[in-house]
Amino acid sequence: MGVKSSIIAASSIAFISLIAQASDHDYLGQETPGLIPQKFAHGIVSTDDAFELNAVFSNDGNEFYFTRQINKKFKIFVSKRTTDGWTKPEMVAFSKTYPENRDADMMFSPDGNRLYFISGRPLEGYPENEYNLWYVDRDGKGWGEPQPLSNVINTQGPDYYPTIVGDGSLYYTSDHGDSIGSRDSYRAQYVSPGVFKKPVNLGPNVNSTFSEGDIFVAPDESYLIHVSNGRPDDMGRGDLYISFKQSDGSWGKDIHMGDTINSDKIDFCPMVTPDGKYFFYSQGGDVFWVDAKILDTFRPQS
Protein backbone atom coordinates (compact mmCIF):
# COMPACT_ATOMS: atom_id res chain seq x y z
CA MET A 1 0.00 0.00 0.00
CA GLY A 2 1.39 3.42 -1.00
CA VAL A 3 1.76 6.37 1.34
CA LYS A 4 -1.32 8.15 -0.05
CA SER A 5 -3.42 4.96 0.19
CA SER A 6 -2.26 4.48 3.78
CA ILE A 7 -3.30 8.04 4.68
CA ILE A 8 -6.74 7.57 3.08
CA ALA A 9 -7.23 4.18 4.79
CA ALA A 10 -6.26 5.65 8.17
CA SER A 11 -8.64 8.56 7.62
CA SER A 12 -11.49 6.19 6.77
CA ILE A 13 -10.81 4.05 9.86
CA ALA A 14 -10.78 7.17 12.04
CA PHE A 15 -14.05 8.32 10.51
CA ILE A 16 -15.73 4.92 11.11
CA SER A 17 -14.46 4.95 14.70
CA LEU A 18 -15.93 8.40 15.32
CA ILE A 19 -19.26 7.32 13.82
CA ALA A 20 -19.33 4.43 16.28
CA GLN A 21 -18.76 6.88 19.14
CA ALA A 22 -21.86 8.79 18.03
CA SER A 23 -24.14 5.77 18.58
CA ASP A 24 -25.44 7.27 21.85
CA HIS A 25 -26.26 10.56 20.15
CA ASP A 26 -29.28 12.22 21.82
CA TYR A 27 -29.81 15.19 19.44
CA LEU A 28 -30.12 17.92 22.09
CA GLY A 29 -32.56 15.72 24.01
CA GLN A 30 -35.26 16.14 21.36
CA GLU A 31 -37.91 13.56 20.52
CA THR A 32 -36.80 12.03 17.23
CA PRO A 33 -38.98 12.37 14.11
CA GLY A 34 -40.36 9.78 11.72
CA LEU A 35 -40.85 10.25 8.00
CA ILE A 36 -42.61 13.61 8.38
CA PRO A 37 -40.19 16.53 8.85
CA GLN A 38 -40.34 18.35 12.17
CA LYS A 39 -38.92 21.67 13.31
CA PHE A 40 -35.74 20.97 15.27
CA ALA A 41 -35.35 22.11 18.88
CA HIS A 42 -38.04 24.78 18.70
CA GLY A 43 -37.19 27.66 21.00
CA ILE A 44 -33.56 26.53 21.36
CA VAL A 45 -32.25 26.32 17.79
CA SER A 46 -35.28 27.18 15.67
CA THR A 47 -36.63 30.32 17.30
CA ASP A 48 -39.54 32.58 16.44
CA ASP A 49 -37.59 35.85 16.52
CA ALA A 50 -34.44 34.98 14.53
CA PHE A 51 -33.39 33.42 11.21
CA GLU A 52 -31.55 30.11 11.68
CA LEU A 53 -29.90 27.73 9.23
CA ASN A 54 -27.33 24.92 9.08
CA ALA A 55 -27.28 21.86 11.35
CA VAL A 56 -23.94 20.17 12.04
CA PHE A 57 -23.21 17.63 14.77
CA SER A 58 -19.63 16.85 15.67
CA ASN A 59 -18.56 13.32 14.80
CA ASP A 60 -18.75 12.21 18.45
CA GLY A 61 -22.22 13.71 18.84
CA ASN A 62 -21.23 16.03 21.69
CA GLU A 63 -21.42 19.37 19.84
CA PHE A 64 -24.10 20.91 17.67
CA TYR A 65 -23.33 23.85 15.38
CA PHE A 66 -25.79 26.07 13.54
CA THR A 67 -25.98 29.58 12.14
CA ARG A 68 -28.14 32.42 13.47
CA GLN A 69 -28.62 35.86 12.00
CA ILE A 70 -27.54 38.55 14.47
CA ASN A 71 -27.82 42.23 13.46
CA LYS A 72 -28.38 41.06 9.87
CA LYS A 73 -25.09 39.07 9.94
CA PHE A 74 -24.84 35.28 9.93
CA LYS A 75 -22.89 33.97 12.93
CA ILE A 76 -21.96 30.44 14.03
CA PHE A 77 -23.39 29.11 17.30
CA VAL A 78 -22.67 25.94 19.27
CA SER A 79 -24.38 23.89 21.97
CA LYS A 80 -22.31 21.30 23.86
CA ARG A 81 -23.36 18.16 25.68
CA THR A 82 -22.26 18.01 29.32
CA THR A 83 -23.07 15.78 32.27
CA ASP A 84 -25.82 18.30 33.09
CA GLY A 85 -27.30 18.23 29.58
CA TRP A 86 -26.85 20.50 26.58
CA THR A 87 -25.59 24.04 27.07
CA LYS A 88 -27.48 27.08 25.86
CA PRO A 89 -26.29 27.93 22.32
CA GLU A 90 -23.52 30.53 22.27
CA MET A 91 -21.61 32.20 19.45
CA VAL A 92 -18.27 30.48 18.83
CA ALA A 93 -15.20 32.55 19.64
CA PHE A 94 -13.85 32.69 16.08
CA SER A 95 -17.18 34.02 14.81
CA LYS A 96 -16.91 36.94 17.25
CA THR A 97 -13.55 38.04 15.80
CA TYR A 98 -15.04 40.05 12.93
CA PRO A 99 -18.46 41.22 14.16
CA GLU A 100 -19.25 43.02 10.90
CA ASN A 101 -18.58 39.96 8.74
CA ARG A 102 -20.58 36.82 8.09
CA ASP A 103 -19.78 33.19 8.97
CA ALA A 104 -21.86 30.13 8.06
CA ASP A 105 -21.91 26.67 6.41
CA MET A 106 -19.85 24.49 8.74
CA MET A 107 -18.52 20.97 8.05
CA PHE A 108 -16.18 18.71 10.02
CA SER A 109 -13.17 16.87 8.67
CA PRO A 110 -13.31 13.05 8.95
CA ASP A 111 -11.21 13.06 12.15
CA GLY A 112 -13.36 15.79 13.74
CA ASN A 113 -10.41 18.07 14.50
CA ARG A 114 -10.97 20.59 11.72
CA LEU A 115 -14.05 22.66 10.98
CA TYR A 116 -14.51 24.11 7.50
CA PHE A 117 -16.81 27.09 7.04
CA ILE A 118 -17.47 30.08 4.83
CA SER A 119 -16.74 33.64 5.86
CA GLY A 120 -16.89 37.17 4.54
CA ARG A 121 -14.03 38.23 6.83
CA PRO A 122 -11.20 40.23 5.22
CA LEU A 123 -8.91 38.26 2.92
CA GLU A 124 -6.10 39.97 1.04
CA GLY A 125 -6.48 39.77 -2.72
CA TYR A 126 -10.21 39.01 -2.62
CA PRO A 127 -13.27 41.27 -2.89
CA GLU A 128 -14.45 42.82 0.36
CA ASN A 129 -17.18 40.91 2.22
CA GLU A 130 -17.21 38.09 -0.37
CA TYR A 131 -17.67 34.54 0.94
CA ASN A 132 -14.56 32.35 0.84
CA LEU A 133 -13.78 28.94 2.32
CA TRP A 134 -11.89 28.84 5.60
CA TYR A 135 -10.99 26.23 8.20
CA VAL A 136 -10.14 26.24 11.89
CA ASP A 137 -8.35 23.52 13.87
CA ARG A 138 -8.80 22.40 17.45
CA ASP A 139 -5.89 23.65 19.57
CA GLY A 140 -6.52 21.76 22.81
CA LYS A 141 -8.45 24.57 24.47
CA GLY A 142 -11.01 25.06 21.73
CA TRP A 143 -10.65 26.37 18.21
CA GLY A 144 -7.49 28.05 16.96
CA GLU A 145 -7.04 30.84 14.42
CA PRO A 146 -9.05 30.43 11.18
CA GLN A 147 -7.10 30.02 7.94
CA PRO A 148 -8.29 30.47 4.35
CA LEU A 149 -8.04 27.79 1.71
CA SER A 150 -5.80 28.61 -1.25
CA ASN A 151 -6.72 30.21 -4.55
CA VAL A 152 -6.95 26.71 -6.03
CA ILE A 153 -10.27 26.58 -4.15
CA ASN A 154 -11.30 30.16 -3.41
CA THR A 155 -12.29 32.35 -6.33
CA GLN A 156 -12.94 36.06 -6.81
CA GLY A 157 -16.67 35.29 -6.61
CA PRO A 158 -18.66 33.67 -3.78
CA ASP A 159 -17.63 30.19 -2.61
CA TYR A 160 -20.20 28.27 -0.57
CA TYR A 161 -21.03 25.24 1.56
CA PRO A 162 -17.97 23.00 1.97
CA THR A 163 -18.64 19.28 2.39
CA ILE A 164 -15.83 16.88 3.28
CA VAL A 165 -16.23 13.19 2.39
CA GLY A 166 -14.59 10.08 3.84
CA ASP A 167 -11.29 10.35 1.96
CA GLY A 168 -10.95 14.04 2.86
CA SER A 169 -11.98 15.38 -0.55
CA LEU A 170 -13.96 18.61 -0.80
CA TYR A 171 -17.28 19.34 -2.48
CA TYR A 172 -18.55 22.91 -2.63
CA THR A 173 -20.30 25.51 -4.79
CA SER A 174 -18.43 28.08 -6.84
CA ASP A 175 -17.70 29.20 -10.41
CA HIS A 176 -14.31 28.25 -11.81
CA GLY A 177 -15.02 29.51 -15.31
CA ASP A 178 -16.67 26.31 -16.58
CA SER A 179 -19.99 26.79 -14.82
CA ILE A 180 -23.06 25.46 -16.65
CA GLY A 181 -25.26 27.99 -14.84
CA SER A 182 -24.71 30.99 -12.62
CA ARG A 183 -22.80 28.82 -10.15
CA ASP A 184 -22.15 25.08 -9.96
CA SER A 185 -21.00 22.39 -7.55
CA TYR A 186 -17.48 20.96 -7.73
CA ARG A 187 -15.31 18.20 -6.28
CA ALA A 188 -11.66 18.80 -5.30
CA GLN A 189 -9.57 15.72 -4.56
CA TYR A 190 -7.77 15.67 -1.19
CA VAL A 191 -3.97 15.88 -1.34
CA SER A 192 -2.92 16.72 2.23
CA PRO A 193 -4.46 18.67 5.14
CA GLY A 194 -5.85 21.91 3.70
CA VAL A 195 -4.52 21.11 0.20
CA PHE A 196 -6.71 19.97 -2.70
CA LYS A 197 -6.36 19.40 -6.43
CA LYS A 198 -8.05 21.64 -8.99
CA PRO A 199 -11.85 21.40 -8.57
CA VAL A 200 -13.80 19.36 -11.14
CA ASN A 201 -17.31 20.34 -12.22
CA LEU A 202 -19.88 17.65 -11.30
CA GLY A 203 -21.51 17.85 -14.71
CA PRO A 204 -25.03 18.22 -16.13
CA ASN A 205 -26.75 15.50 -14.06
CA VAL A 206 -26.14 17.66 -10.97
CA ASN A 207 -25.53 21.15 -12.32
CA SER A 208 -27.86 22.96 -14.71
CA THR A 209 -28.34 26.24 -16.51
CA PHE A 210 -29.98 27.45 -13.30
CA SER A 211 -28.25 28.10 -9.97
CA GLU A 212 -26.96 25.26 -7.78
CA GLY A 213 -25.58 25.28 -4.26
CA ASP A 214 -25.49 23.89 -0.71
CA ILE A 215 -24.23 20.44 -1.63
CA PHE A 216 -24.06 17.65 0.96
CA VAL A 217 -22.37 14.40 -0.07
CA ALA A 218 -22.48 11.13 1.86
CA PRO A 219 -19.10 10.14 3.36
CA ASP A 220 -18.90 7.17 0.97
CA GLU A 221 -20.03 9.39 -1.94
CA SER A 222 -23.01 7.12 -2.66
CA TYR A 223 -25.45 10.04 -2.86
CA LEU A 224 -25.58 13.80 -2.75
CA ILE A 225 -28.26 16.35 -1.88
CA HIS A 226 -28.16 19.91 -3.12
CA VAL A 227 -30.23 23.01 -3.82
CA SER A 228 -31.25 24.42 -7.16
CA ASN A 229 -33.12 27.64 -7.70
CA GLY A 230 -35.31 28.53 -10.68
CA ARG A 231 -35.91 25.16 -12.32
CA PRO A 232 -39.39 24.50 -13.78
CA ASP A 233 -40.32 22.24 -10.83
CA ASP A 234 -39.06 24.73 -8.20
CA MET A 235 -41.78 25.21 -5.58
CA GLY A 236 -40.33 28.37 -4.07
CA ARG A 237 -37.04 30.23 -3.80
CA GLY A 238 -34.98 27.06 -4.12
CA ASP A 239 -35.64 23.33 -3.64
CA LEU A 240 -33.68 20.25 -2.58
CA TYR A 241 -32.69 17.56 -5.08
CA ILE A 242 -30.98 14.20 -4.59
CA SER A 243 -28.64 12.27 -6.89
CA PHE A 244 -27.32 8.72 -6.47
CA LYS A 245 -23.94 7.43 -7.62
CA GLN A 246 -24.23 5.06 -10.59
CA SER A 247 -22.41 1.74 -11.08
CA ASP A 248 -20.04 3.42 -13.54
CA GLY A 249 -19.05 6.03 -10.94
CA SER A 250 -21.02 8.88 -12.49
CA TRP A 251 -23.79 10.84 -10.80
CA GLY A 252 -27.36 9.95 -11.75
CA LYS A 253 -29.78 12.65 -12.84
CA ASP A 254 -30.82 14.57 -9.74
CA ILE A 255 -34.37 14.09 -8.46
CA HIS A 256 -36.68 16.71 -6.96
CA MET A 257 -37.39 15.72 -3.34
CA GLY A 258 -41.09 16.54 -3.52
CA ASP A 259 -43.45 18.45 -1.29
CA THR A 260 -42.77 16.39 1.83
CA ILE A 261 -39.37 18.11 1.96
CA ASN A 262 -39.72 21.15 -0.29
CA SER A 263 -42.01 24.13 0.22
CA ASP A 264 -42.86 27.55 -1.16
CA LYS A 265 -40.01 28.91 1.00
CA ILE A 266 -36.29 28.44 0.39
CA ASP A 267 -35.27 24.85 1.24
CA PHE A 268 -31.51 24.57 1.69
CA CYS A 269 -28.52 23.54 3.85
CA PRO A 270 -28.92 19.73 3.64
CA MET A 271 -26.96 17.63 6.14
CA VAL A 272 -27.14 14.03 7.39
CA THR A 273 -26.01 13.27 10.95
CA PRO A 274 -22.67 11.45 11.35
CA ASP A 275 -24.50 8.28 12.43
CA GLY A 276 -26.57 8.41 9.22
CA LYS A 277 -29.89 8.35 11.07
CA TYR A 278 -31.38 11.80 10.46
CA PHE A 279 -31.58 14.21 7.57
CA PHE A 280 -31.46 17.91 8.52
CA TYR A 281 -32.21 20.86 6.30
CA SER A 282 -33.20 24.50 6.61
CA GLN A 283 -36.54 25.89 5.46
CA GLY A 284 -37.28 29.59 5.49
CA GLY A 285 -35.64 30.68 8.73
CA ASP A 286 -35.86 27.42 10.71
CA VAL A 287 -34.05 24.08 10.96
CA PHE A 288 -35.97 20.87 10.24
CA TRP A 289 -35.14 17.18 10.62
CA VAL A 290 -36.60 13.86 9.47
CA ASP A 291 -35.66 10.17 9.58
CA ALA A 292 -32.95 9.60 6.96
CA LYS A 293 -34.86 6.54 5.73
CA ILE A 294 -36.83 9.04 3.66
CA LEU A 295 -33.81 9.36 1.35
CA ASP A 296 -34.27 5.76 0.15
CA THR A 297 -37.77 6.60 -1.09
CA PHE A 298 -36.16 8.69 -3.82
CA ARG A 299 -33.77 5.96 -4.98
CA PRO A 300 -34.57 4.83 -8.56
CA GLN A 301 -35.80 1.25 -8.82
CA SER A 302 -33.47 -0.99 -10.79
General description of the model:
The protein is mostly beta strands. The chain contains three helices and 23 strands. The longest helix is centred in the N-terminal third of the chain and has 19 residues, at 3-21.
Rg, alpha carbons: 18 Å
SSE succession:
HEEEEEEHEEEEEEEEEEEEEEHEEE
Largest sheet: 5 strands, antiparallel
- Mean pLDDT equals 91
Low-pLDDT sequence parts: 1-23
The level of helicity is under 10%
Number of strands: 23
Describe the global form.
Answer: globular
Q: Count of helices? A: 3
Descriptive keywords:
302 residues, 3 helices, four-stranded antiparallel β-sheet, single chain, mainly beta, 9% helix
Short description:
The protein is mostly beta strands. Helix content is 9%, strand content 37%.
How is the secondary structure organized here?
Layout (H helix, E strand, L loop, with lengths): L2 H19 L16 E2 L12 E6 L5 E8 L2 E10 L2 E2 L3 E2 L1 H4 L6 E6 L5 E6 L12 E6 L9 E2 L11 E5 L5 E5 L9 E5 L1 E3 L2 E2 L3 E2 L9 E7 L5 E7 L9 E6 L10 E2 L1 H4 L5 E6 L5 E6 L2 E6 L11
Antiparallel strand pairs: 1-23, 2-3, 3-4, 4-5, 4-6, 7-8, 8-9, 9-10, 11-12, 12-13, 13-16, 14-15, 17-18, 18-19, 19-20, 21-22, 22-23
